[in-house]
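Example record

One chain of 161 residues, shown exactly as stored in the release files.
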Amino acid sequence: MQTAMAQVHSPRDNPVAAVLLSKMGDHESERVAVKRELLRMLVRLELDGARQRLLFRFFEMYLTLSEQEEIQLRNEVSQMETKEAKKVNDLLISYERRGMEKGKMDVAKRMLAKGCDVPTICELTGLPAEALEKLKEQKNGETPFRCNGLVSERCFFLSCH
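Predicted structure tokens for this chain:
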């Protein structure tokens, strides 16, 4: 059987197969390399935003790196050819921002549930008051909450425009 790295480099460019193969057997030493190649594959495949987000979420779910491995990944990405490294870095930054927004939304929901007032939540999370009002409406069963074009955490990585 081929290693996960060999499968990632296959001409088929099948990111799902590569992730699943990386979970089989003992490939701990290849985790950073597999994730680097998966990111390169995402850039190379030039998928639309929804598919790209779906695959990235899948990668994150099945191939989560430790903090040290993330640092190693960033170092390896910086060693790539300049144009490719920029695209991969842009991809990573984009998903980090989305993750931070989701985290803010989660904190705001918990704060609302505990009875915190909107100005305090705005101050502590950095979310606009309008977003919190929409979040309160969603909680009351009205229109769904949208933040940067996304509808709540259930649709976080899906296209909800």
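Notes: The two ends are 42 Å apart (CA to CA).
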